[in-house]
TrEMBL record, chains A, B:
Protein name: Acid phosphatase 1, putative isoform 3
PANTHER family referenced in this protein's UniProt entry, alphabetically: ACID PHOSPHATASE-LIKE PROTEIN (PTHR31284), HAD SUPERFAMILY, SUBFAMILY IIIB ACID PHOSPHATASE (PTHR31284:SF9)
Keywords per UniProt: Glycoprotein, Signal, Storage protein
Membership in a protein family: Belongs to the APS1/VSP family.
Function per UniProt: May function as somatic storage protein during early seedling development.
Keyword Nuclease: no
Nuclease keyword on record: no
UniProt cross-references to CDD domains, sorted A to Z: HAD_VSP
Stored InterPro entries: Acid_phosphat_B-like, Acid_phosphatase_pln, APS1/VSP, HAD-like_sf, HAD_sf
Annotated GO MF terms: acid phosphatase activity; nutrient reservoir activity
């Protein structure tokens, strides 16, 4: 089949698409409601975008798994470029907020960053968990984290570097268990370039079984008692950004793969 | 051209697409970063999706206009079907929350709904304002609101009806000015089917110049003083859902056209 024939076919198929599009449009103009109810080529992906938006706006809470029919959508979102765009966009927003801050400069200007899917990415792990369509598997995740092989999220590494360079004390606060995961996590953060933070705070025995909101609020409260002023607080979970002593501004990074209650 | 030829062509074009997809995939596997940076067909629409997500997750605050290059994206979002899907999705979430509530049933179970772009749609007006790319025009909006021609948002009308039928006292709380806009707003809500609410509360002289958060917090505080239990609070603006006496759960409806500070 030669090039000319192929391009003729592509053209014909395009004409057919345009015909159907115009047919739909002319139908839509004459109907109520005034916004057109689209029959999308991939109905799922539009539903799944609604789901993702609802998760990110905190309208859907305490969800356990990604809806099964959204697996392909979430895969495309996570590795097709949009997740990276979204991350970059928010990191730029945060950096411009940082630039505009007028801080005390007394060495007590602090920032809080979460670790999993904030500093370090777990996409590789979740690829094996159908991008979150499979339920949470604590021992599987622990085995993965023990490997210390999580890649940095480039946008957040850039933010981290700016914060450290600007003189902020950066506190990494993670729900990872100190007893089992501290060495691997410390090494992983180091080998990915997260160097120069003030403190890496794990979940200790004292907080076992307590919710993320309770644990992280308590940590922030202790930091404020030590005299730190928390200028910003960044996480991929709403539970990173709720509770007490939230800081001057919070930023929610996207994560449609799992929800930490 | 007969049916057989067309389907053969469609098949061939599909094969070409699959070939390119596989070529891209195999390229992606060998490259860093592990997620592929896509060169999207329409770079703008992906940027604008990032912007919209950031707005809905409250990462971008106090914005004044839609980014100019996103006008077409927002138009497509608002009238192409996705906005309606998003609205329906959240309304279903809220309805399922309502169904699961165990209320006191003492006649003091309350809900708060915002009016503009929660109960009533201003899409028609914003079509003339480049879907929010033009700056806020107070007198233009007042003239529009005076016409009393805003259509109901079907998903929210359905929620409203369920709330009233379930015995909740529904309070509509709006930043619209009482003195000038009360009659038109009352008529508009009635002609669109919002019938049976407990009270419609406007912004009065006392709150002129005060922020939406201050005004709406004060109204909710007064309702709680009267003995009402606020089970839910629904609005299209984050400022509807911040401050004091927020209620048992808040729900953020999408609105990428404007931001009320």
């Amino acid at each position: 089949m030669d090039h000319h024939m192929i391009s003729a076919m592509v053209k014909r198929v395009r004409e057919i698409f345009i015909f159907f599009f115009l047919a739909m449009l002319s139908k839509a103009i004459g109907t109520k409601p005034f916004w057109r109810t689209r029959e999308p080529a991939d109905g799922n992906s539009n539903d799944c975008l609604s789901w993702r938006l609802a998760v990110e706006a905190n309208n859907v809470r305490g969800w356990r798994t990604v809806p099964t029919h959204c697996q392909h959508y979430i895969e495309t979102y996570m590795i097709g470029g949009q997740y990276e765009l979204d991350m970059n966009y928010i990191a730029e927003q945060i950096k411009s907020y940082v630039t505009d801050l007028v801080v005390s400069g007394d060495g007590m200007d602090a920032w809080i960053l979460d670790v999993d899917d904030t500093c370090l990415s777990n996409i590789f792990y979740y690829q094996g968990k159908k991008y979150g369509c499979d339920p949470y598997d604590p021992s599987g995740f622990k085995a993965w984290a023990m490997m210390g092989a999580c890649p940095a999220i480039p946008a957040v590494l850039g933010l981290f570097t700016k914060l450290v360079d600007s003189g902020f004390k950066v506190f990494l606060v993670t729900g990872r268990d100190e007893e089992t995961l501290a060495p691997a996590t410390i090494a992983n953060l180091h080998n990915q370039g997260f160097i120069g933070y003030e403190r890496l705070i794990f979940r200790t025995q004292a907080f076992k079984g307590k919710s993320a909101v309770v644990f992280k609020s308590e940590i922030r409260k202790q930091l404020m008692k030590e005299g730190y002023k928390i200028w910003g607080n960044v996480g991929d979970q709403w539970t990173d950004l709720q509770g007490e002593c939230l800081g001057n501004q919070t930023f929610k990074l996207p994560n449609p793969m799992y929800c930490v209650p």
